[in-house]
Description:
Shape of chain B: globular
Largest interface: A-B, 33 and 47 residues
CATH class of the largest domain in chain A: Mainly Alpha
Number of domains of chain B: 1
Oligomer: heterodimer
Strand order of the largest sheet of chain A: 1-2
Amino acid sequence: MPPVxxxxxxxxxxxxxxxxxxxxxxxxxALALRDLALRLxxxxxxAALLAPDATDTRQMLVHLTVMPRIxxxxxxxxxxxxxxxxxxxxxRNPLAEPTTLGISAGASLALSAATLWAxxxxxxxxxxxxxxxxxxxxxxxxxLAWRRALSPVSxxxxxxxxxxxxxxxxxxxxxxxxxxxxxIYLWGAGFLSQQGWGVAAFLLPRLGVAAFLIxxxxxxxxxxxxxxxxxxxxxxxxxxxxxxxxVVAVSLSAAVTSAVGVxxxxxxxxxxxxxxxxxxRLRDRLVWAPLCGAAxxxxxxxxxxxxxxxxxxxxTGAATALLGAPVMLALLPRLRxxxxxRAEPAAAVPRAARPGLVLAAGAGLLALALWGALAFAYGxxxxxxxxxxxxxxxxxxxxxxxxxxLAAGAMLAMAGMLLQRxxxxxxxxxxxxxxxSGAALGVIVALFLTEAPSRVVQLxxxxxxxxxxxxxxxVLGRRDAFSPERLLLAGVATSAAFGAIVxxxxxxxxxxxxxxxxxxxxxxxxxxxxxxxxxxxxxAILAGLAPMLARWLDILPLGAAxxxxxxxxxxxxxxxxxxxAAVMTAVPTLVVGPLSFVGLMAPHIAxxxxxxxxxxxxxxAAILGxxxxxxxxxxGRTIIFPYQMPAGLLATVIxxxxxxxxxxxx
Amino acid sequence: MREPDAxxxxxxxxxxxxxxxxxxxxxTLLQPLTARLERxxxxxxxxxxxxxxxxxxxxLAGQQSPSGGRIAYAGRPLAAWGRRAFARQVAxxxxxxxxxxxxxxxxxxxxxxxxxxxxLGRFTAADRERVEEAMRLTEVAGFSDRLVDxxxxxxxxxxxxxxxxxxxxxCLLLDEPTSALDIGHQIQVLALVQRLAxxxxxxxxxxxxxxxxxxxxxxLIALHSGRLIRRGPSRELMNAADLQAIYDVPMAVLPHxxxxxxxxxxx
Lengths: 666, 267
């Protein structure tokens, strides 16, 4: 019997996707015609395209900038849409796209490193450097996931970790070499402006070859959408098929990235939009996703051109999320169960024989770390050890920061644990769901609207932002009892829109961006004793209340049907858990910014070292989160004394390798 | 330690449904259905694939809201029952039990005690005793400390049934509990269900194998295309004409060579 709750499948799933693509394309066309008409009388358009009069500046301008720009927008959009559709199919995850596999992060890191240390390489063309970075990141991801036959969950997880890690390293570089790397920012934001047909000529054959190869792979790709056993049973070599499909998709998106920079969200949104609109079969999605991506990017670019250029042009790559996110949010209610998302049976996980002992060891380690963070430091006269007695002297200076890091780490980790259990998705975390982004957005608004906002104003603005996102999630999710897949997609859309706004803000070259960058990376620098006490109290209260949710958190991963069968009021339970997670996110985001990823890493590490029951998992995650941020904060204060590195950034640098090692080991 | 039902009316029928329908978009999965289920019996729900068996079970379990009509449990509308109070009365096993990552059998069975102790109540010695008893009854005690996901299909199914037994409900709704079991374990599980019913429980079980259904159920309810077409004591329904109407294939009924029980065979 088919799963109840679905509408009968429409025979042909092409009308609605076609309608959406047509609407987007028509709007883009109208904008493009308006732009052209301003530059050139319609009678000369044909001539400008095919045989421009070299003496007519207006014709040459249209021929060399306006028209190639449209072509590049269409080609990039199509390429990203196609690559995204393939990745989502192979990884069986609606959140997968080439960037999920670490490609743009690897490219960006490679470019940053080359700019600083081997500028000679860039002379050969940054495309090559970007491609090398992309493939290095991808190889790393494959290496991490190889033992699990490149299974979707492990691939996505490995991709996420590598992305975070490259991102953290690149941000660390950019903090110290901001002046040198300003060009990378602009490149990273994805400008489409053209000075000729070169880029279009670079992209067209690559798109053609990739489309041809993917057309050859339609059947194995369809099988990959089944679960592993069924696909293997039908005679498909899983690793080989996944590898081939991913290499094509990634090469395609790496070509796009190296040509115009990072264009986020199109690869994610285009396949999601057509799938939600009813392109149910893979071959439909493979046809409509590129078309939708092309139309989406073209329209975005048209809108970007409408914005009057001030100090600098707004990068199109960043603006895509601003347009795509609302489109996707509007379509979410149409998302049908099972079209995009199929729960993956979790891989066998280790289980600690004595979880109590593990927790006690963790607590001991945390105590040691706290002592070290307070007593051990690098100063003007080299390393110093305050021992036990000297701590009191140092407490007023180091105490608030250590306390803030401890509290923030514990809270973020608990929030991540709640969300991962509730959604039964290893990618769920406050950072991924956009709650952190909401808090950060609030602070940014405060930063730009008021002159030097006080800490209190920032706190208020951040809290308001986090709750606004939460409220949006609640309104959106209420309709179907907060189904995890919709929440995740909504959160990703929110995060993407936030990233776009930050990228735009950075491109403005506003001096306040420096402050923003430091805060986004997560710094405990400005915490005063009063705030630290407040954070500690909040963490203590939340940590005291959270164990009351433990039984729910044991049951929720078994799915809604079972949870309800044993007597849980599922919507109400999900609401309570989400509220708890939101509060646990909003408070620490104000301390360490939205990019620490402690909320993603700590619960994973806790689970991978064998803490499986909800209560053990919760306590273990909290201890690990606190440990991670405390160590990161300490390292940030000492490594490059007298300068400082933000704790949130270092937490990723410290925790990332351990998480990778655990992932590789299991 | 079973509580009397919340209304105190133990004479009320187990389930009472009136004009119950369920439709998705323009497809009707369950035609208006009116029926009563009595207490203390094993009811077998049979029918062809897609006949609405699972849908009916989900509606009775409160997993889905009906498109129309009324369902009452123990004389009280389903909507009026609190979730936990209802879970103390009715336990439901879905057709495909989900993965239970990282849980041992004992812990999974322990989750069945949730309706009794709730989110914060103490997990008492009595709870522990019920868990042990449930594992003993379903013969999963031998691997109680193994991870559920490491078990074979049959062992896993029995672990889930153990969880339902630990739930200590007055009524079990089972959606093909024997689908993953070999014939020995099928008989074992159904015999257990029958024993539980003799002890006062009521059971509604979806079964594919009509002979198993006839052997272990007191009464059979047959659905066809979302409509109730036959209902009666198991022995009475085991005749060629009725079976043919239920499964749409020519059937014959032979006496069992030893017990003399009627056995249905597709021709």
